[in-house]
Amino acid sequence: KTHISHIMAESTIDEVCSNLRKYYEFMQIEYKKDDEPVFSGVCEASGFDDEMMHDDINGEVEQSMLVEELADDFPLPDDLNTSKQEYIMKILRKCRQSNCSFADLASGLPAYDAKLFEAITNDDITNTQQLYQNHCAAIYNQGMNTDKGLLQIIAIGRNNKFDYLQNLVDIFDRDRVKHLKDNPDKGLQVMQWVKTGGNKHILGLQKLNVTRLAKKENESKSVIKASELVGAAIHSFGHRCCNRLLFNSLQKIDDSIPDILSYASAALDFITNLVDAQSKSLQNVCPFQFDVCMCTGAPIERKEKEQFENNDEEEDDDSDDDDTDEDETKNPDPMDKDGKFVDYIGDIQSKLDQDGKDNKLKHIKYKQDPENQKFGYREFDELFKALQKEIIPKSQSGTEHNGGNVFPFRKRFISMIDRRVSKDGSKPDDIWMYEPPKGKTGQYTSDIPQNEASLWYVSASRTCLLPAKKFDEKTAIGDTNMDKLNNVKNTGKTPAVDVNIGASFHAKGGLFTLSFHVKAADEIKCYLFWNGQMIRLMPDEIEDVFPQIFNMKNQNNVDYFKSEDFKIILGNMREKLIDKEFEAFQASYN
């Protein structure tokens, strides 16, 4: 009842009519009947007001006057798998939602029913294990090979050609941010969200009892609610792939939000310009990955009186994952025993120069123009073109041999922005662009494989953002012990020289990364990594998420959210961070 009354308060006949027009346009059918807009004309002819409209749509399909009036000329898909009347009612109910989308109708996404889960076999699990071992060793080595619940969800996405697991993680994080607004002192846990939350996709899965593939071949299969299977997979993602960003960190990034977002917006402009230019020349550039890393120096410590009881990090009681997060991973002490900040970044140029003939990587440092202190998308492009010349021999005339595809087609590259001593504005930031170290084959860090595993992009960032002085692939893809991965004490390593820094490594809170996954012109994702944790960056959530991890005692950070500059950058990011698959996934259950 609460949900229905909310819809009634928000949607009118005119609003439903406007949304139904979108559907007709999507189906390429003229939205007129007797020279009147279809829906408002039907309502007027039937004598319906707003309340009567909602009563009709909330009622039984067989008794709906609106469905009966619309049925004769209503545009239907060719692959309709339900009755015409039920389909029309489904569309009308969707049209009551603000900003509704029909992207799911063209996405090819599957129906979320028991068949989707039951179709996965042990052969699918084995194939998924082999794929991730070959493409995503940094994730596979964290116990993925025995986590059949996680593998089952990944296999569903693989078999149906969409990124199911990552989409699930992302919708959970969207609800975490919403929860944060209303419950700043208490975090949202995965199983709490699965069992008591209101997400429509999860509510639909709660009705499905599905077979969970046993952990071992000789064990009996068990029946589980699809929602619980999905919840366990989301929880496992945090252990196998990267911890979710916590909203109760004991440290805060001591840097300028305006400067950070200026770089983010410039990087996005650079990406979209690159994609647009190559599409006009009919050359392939997607997919590629661009990681923008910013060295922010020592974080500030939150004082005891400022700490609150947000239990975002507590274990979900119903999770099948036996791993536990170590405190070193969640909230590492940024200081050494002498009270000095431990800087794992070290000498960036020295690290990029690399030791050993097999470790060489191409890199370019930006030459600052004394007349122009601004760094925008043109400067990113200048760096990129210089790197492109370094990577691609002149004899190839700017193209690779494989069909004329242009760098960075199926490549990953990184930009490192050093703000440790320049964030006060006393000097320009030092900025590099480089290819990641390739290791033996490049398949873990640099070269996106054909038919890549969907989590390759996250795994590549986890494998390496900034290499140790002498890159070692075996170390980079990770020990299976998370405590060892994040604890370099008593190992004889020098933090600023010998430690490979990947996205899941905390770096004592001194490295902030935005990872752009550019899978297609209309599928561009951005993920934020900090302190060994991650969250998808959504423009409309920046004002909620950034204050959780940035120093808000800096008045410039506080004032920035009220400024015109922020509105401009926010608008630019909304326009260019387009992900049609994720929109379709959300639309499929709304």
Task: Give the SSE layout.
Blueprint: H1 2-10, H2 13-26, H3 38-46, H4 50-58, H5 65-70, H6 84-95, H7 114-118, H8 122-135, H9 137-140, H10 148-160, H11 164-182, H12 190-196, H13 200-205, E1 209-212, E2 222-225, H14 226-240, E3 243-244, E4 251-252, H15 257-280, E5 288-295, E6 300-301, H16 327-330, H17 348-353, E7 363-365, H18 377-391, E8 412-418, E9 430-434, H19 456-463, H20 473-476, H21 482-486, H22 495-498, E10 511-520, E11 523-530, E12 533-536, H23 542-549, H24 555-560, H25 564-576, H26 580-587
Parallel strand pairs: 3-12, 5-8
Antiparallel strand pairs: 1-2, 4-6, 5-10, 7-9, 8-9, 10-11, 11-12
Helix pairs in contact: 2-3, 8-10, 10-14, 11-14, 12-14, 15-18, 15-25
In brief:
The chain is of the alpha+beta class.
Would you kindly provide a written description of the structure presented here, covering whatever features stand out?
By secondary structure, this protein is of the alpha+beta class. It has 26 helices and 12 strands. The strands form 3 sheets. Strands 3-12-11-10-5-8-9-7 form an 8-stranded mixed sheet, with helices on both faces. Helix 8 packs across helix 10, helix 10 packs across helix 14 and helix 12 runs antiparallel to helix 14. The longest helix is centred in the middle third of the chain and has 24 residues. The two termini are 17 Å apart.
